[in-house]
Specification:
4 copies of one chain form a homotetramer.
Chain A lengths: L10 E5 L5 E5 L5 E4 L2 E4 L11 E3 L5 E5 L3 H7 L9 H11 L6 E5 L5 H10 L4 E5 L3 H13 L6 E4 L12 E6 L5 H10 E11 L2 H13 L3 E14 L6 E2 L2 E3 L4 E6 L9
Helix pairs in contact in A: 1-3
């Protein structure tokens, strides 16, 4: 069980009013500069999680352990990410379980990677491919902060030329042009395994669904989810007037023993 | 790694056309009776996962390993359940991680329990309270089938009188009247821990949000998610005309060192 | 002002519990047969609008004047229709006003036709083209019942060969393949006039938007609307769990003095 | 039929790239100052509607006749307004038709008033009550610009003390506390007439629905609509990532011969 108080080296969440928040790795002698004034890391060490913290300018923050969502949403984000609203469905549908081996093509910022790692840990592994070294590095730092890096292997390589793994239990694809890598993913995915492909546009949905259907996949299903905040005050509760209206579509499917027609 | 072929005792998914599917525990000598004809379990044993299966009447099914979603959606459901569309957000937001101890009040059919168990396994535990023994039994069978029962302890008891656990990392509440149990949950939840409360009506949202705010919780947020299928055919892709428009609202929050005002 | 009591020849709405309703043209000696028993038209004549009506089997109905929505939703519907949820935006955006002349290609069941007629009446006109005579007949009967037929001229003809009108203020298109008729509509629409095209699939949206942009149209915008019922009981108000999730996309635009490139 | 060219005194729409637009009353000698440079009204007079217009800085705008939506969205808006996405349903459901007399309580900026006026014109009337004189003045100017003021009578008065009208065909209510005025509206609404009440919060929905049910109203229904833009480019069409997620709920109902229980 994690400690009840903050130690040097912890990554903590500092939560300001109105939902503003920072992920901070506590390091003796360091300072966090905010619009509420400076917060000295030395003042955090030894303090219990859940405590209020006063900033120099008298702002009131709270000291919290970061959740998986905090690591995802407040981590480095050099790329678009898959949002937590979609992760539950993806993970539950592709069959990722404790101990599973999951192939990921397109690590990006490592957002979905973190969620997958949390499910397969500690016996399973996420094998994740990323072409751009700077994205791979950001993802590694995000995973490290969340304590999940030991369940993930990131390879800086183009998966379209083929991947090393065979017989993985499940796979996710989040790259600009999924059709380039689906053949390689198919080779790696064991029969009955589940696949999720991120597809921001209708056009991608249509092409991916076609490829999967003609390659013997079953339960081919495309979907989108939405998230809407409810603003609640006593006697005046209503949906929020603003929201993210669309992030991405997702296509999910199950591999069978059949395969793609030869190109 | 699980076997590539079906063995006696496996729980398999039999997928018929149009998305109809059955969870079947394979038992020598048994038969599954469907609208496509009879399928004899003996014909499944030794067959590779991902295989097509012919029914007596010539229907074509597929033999798949069940995913977590299959265990959730096709398990016994004596109660309303939390849907996978909401589970990712709940789990990521309350701070459930591999190794976490999570308190659940209102096991119901064990749907959310399964997802929580998959995340905390194998070191963590879900401590789940359910008043109705028949629900607890259904949940246990669902967890057993999904191979997740060893990470969950179900207690048939009313949590409003207090729970045994202290210092749990996170908590979820899904009961008819959440306000009856929030005090007991608060006692059990360690400071900084995350909480999610299922609230089907806006009236419940309002009361729960009020209780949490007045009890020192931060990041109190209510939301709803929606799921919409996209129907994709080459040249004719469109959102599905029917969907589940509302399942439930969810209220999430983080405990601080503060506490509820004495009643 | 319409009469306060029902006269022979009136089209009335009979509303049963749970929202079941019938449009009935009152005719002496006729009967309406329902699951609540028989209702004799003679019993309706002379009765005030807004009255309760007992059926033979003791069911309680209400006698109402039909609204425009009733004429639209309970009229004959041999085709898919545009729903009232989209009509306000269409009408307001294309610039239909009292006195406008509006071109409609694809009368269908006359649903949108009715709404357009209600806005342009009594000085304006809707000129509506329909290839299938049986649809044109259904639309005429629907318009007649709603008292709006005198503001509409329906022509049973394929508009792709050209339309008779020139300089119309606004236009709507609701046919299977809008691209076949857009050239003819363009000829008829005065510069600055507004156009709305019904497009159930995203593929149609994409082609129509392309055509309009390359033909000098401005304010080219595609959208979809959704409608969700709220179920309200004292202390238990929530969104309905079922809804129509998608009916159609709509593309709207304004013509400029520019025109389509020659084919 | 309106002229094909701009005359002094016309209210025109000047449309800049990216959807920015201005409503301009053309007046000899005046200038419009924009981020694209100055546009002299004298240059607009005599020019055909639908023309491109060059600004001083070389920006390209278009000269259009304003649509009803333009008058609604670009008019003066000292208050929240009802949006066109909700207007079609409201108008169709309450039974507003050409020639109807409609009572409106809460003119606000006159947005819904304009739409109602367009439907009932020229024989019908909208009788609209507004407590705040500055809102009434803004609404009058908006109606005037749209050419609809002659179908509307605005009274600067609190409707809760009672209204002058009796036997109106339909009514709409858009005030802070609808319950204060529903009694007066009920007195004015003829039996069978339709009513729509704007209710931004769930709590208002619940109270209004209760009042209506206990006052003999039928077809009591609450709803919300959403509007989502689709961004379409060849090969890359997707829903817009931002939208207005909630504007208001609307409650609609039909009056019967029954009435509210005495207070």
């Amino acid at each position: 069980m994690s400690s009840d108080v903050v130690s040097e080296g912890d990554t903590v969440l500092l939560l300001a009013p109105k939902g503003v928040a920072w992920l901070v790795r506590v390091s003796r002698g360091s300072e966090l500069h905010t619009h509420l004034g400076i917060i000295r890391h030395d003042d955090l060490i030894g303090r219990p999680y859940g405590s209020p913290v006063e900033s120099q300018l008298g702002g009131r923050l709270h000291l919290l352990r970061p959740s998986l969502e905090d690591f995802i949403m407040l981590g480095e984000r050099p790329t678009q990410i898959v949002y937590p609203k979609d992760m539950g469905l993806i993970v539950a549908r592709i069959g990722a379980m404790p101990g599973s081996r999951v192939l990921e093509v397109g690590t990006g910022s490592g957002a979905l990677t973190m969620f997958l790692a949390a499910v397969v840990a500690p016996e399973g592994r996420v094998h994740s491919y990323e072409v751009r070294p700077e994205f791979a590095d950001a993802a590694r730092r995000n995973l490290e902060r969340a304590g999940l890096s030991k369940y993930v292997e990131i390879k800086v390589r183009d998966a379209s030329a083929g991947v090393d793994e065979r017989g993985v239990d499940a796979a996710v694809v989040d790259v600009g042009d999924a059709l380039r890598v689906l053949g390689a993913v198919h080779e790696a995915l064991r029969p009955s395994g589940g696949l999720a492909v991120i597809a921001p546009t209708f056009n991608q949905v249509e092409r991916i669904v076609s490829w999967l259907r003609s390659s013997g996949y079953v339960r081919v299903e495309a979907f989108e989810t939405t998230y809407r905040r409810i603003e609640s005050k006593p006697g005046a509760t209503r949906p929020s007037s603003s929201t993210v209206a669309h992030t991405t579509f997702v296509v999910t499917a199950r591999r069978t023993l059949g395969g793609p027609a030869p190109a």
